[in-house]
Every structure is written in structure tokens, then in C-alpha cells.
Amino acid sequence: MQIDRPPLAGWWRRCFAWWYELLLLIPVVLLVQVLYQLGFQLLTGAAVTAVSASAGLRALNFAVLVIAVFGYFTLCWRRGGQTLAMKTWRLRLDGLAGGRPAWPALVVRFVAAAICYLPCAPLWALAWHDRAWLPWAWTSCAWLMAPFVWAWFDREGLLLQDRVAGTRIVRTPPRGHAVKR
């Protein structure tokens, strides 16, 4: 028996949704950052600048931000398969067999995506202050596009993180429209 699955989302739709996701992620990261800084000040009584003066506190701050972003994505993907940007672009994350992906697949997908996307911002921040980091920052931009380049060559057009995790991003019908079979 053939299972009817929604069509895979197109490359451009996924790319534009990714950029929109990035814009929508900024307020999430800023909110977490404000809460981290506020909590730090309330617990220690130290100035906000104390976080940037300590390598350990900077590492903890980074870990808190990564955990928050992990929570945002995995909870959205597990609950309904969609983040706000995915809803806007009518996309949904499914398992390869259809339906919601399991938690392990979501963790693998997030880690695979983070390996490609995460180095870009810190490397550009370093390059901003020290031009010696500029080649590494440009390299991170190329690495950032690796999942999308992978999709051009993948036999099913899956992004790198979807291939690794056993997931796929599909188009959803507009509200009030039935899925064509």
C-alpha cells in the first residue's frame, strides 16, 4: 500500500524560510540574553560587564543560548512540526515515513544543522575585532550554505541535516484546502 505523503518543499521556499527563521530567532536570542544578564546580576550583584570579562561566564552564556535555541526548535518541531517561519512559508517537518519525527531524529537534526550554522556568527564577531579572523569568517559563510548545496545534489533534494536525521521538510496546503492526492 502506497502512503500519500505531502510534496517536498522546494529549494527556494526552504531557503527563504531559513532566512525568515533567522530574523525571527533574533528576538528569542535577545530575550534569553536579557534573562541571563538579569539573572546574573541578581544572583551575583556584579556588573553586566563581568560576564564579558570571564571566559567561563561567556562559555556559560553561549551554552544557555544554544540550549534555548535547541528548545525553541525541537519543541516547535515536535509539537506541530512547524516553527513560526515554517508556518508562514507553509512548511512542516516530517519523518521520512511521514508523521512527526521522533525526539532522537530532532536532536540529530538540530546538531547537524548547528554544526553548519553555529560557527558563522562568532567567527564574524571575531573578524570584526581582528582582521586575522576574516578568512575563517568567509569560510564559515561557505560552510553555512553546505546544507543547501547538499540539497542540489541529494537524490531527493533533502537538506544535509534532513538526510542525516531521517526527516524532510514538506509543503502544507493553505488553510481550508485539502491535500491533493
From TrEMBL:
Q: Which residues cross the membrane?
A: 20-39, 59-77, 106-127, 133-153
Q: How does it sit in the membrane?
A: Multi-pass membrane protein
InterPro entries in the record: Pra-immunoreactive, RDD
Instruction: Tell me the ranges covered by the RDD domain, including all copies.
Output: 8-166
One Pfam short name: RDD
**Source organism's superkingdom?**
Bacteria
Q: From the Swiss-Prot or TrEMBL record, state where the protein is found.
A: Cell membrane
Coiled-coil zones? none
Q: What is its main location?
A: membrane
Keywords recorded for this protein, A-Z: Cell membrane, Membrane, Transmembrane, Transmembrane helix
* Listed name of the protein: RDD domain-containing protein
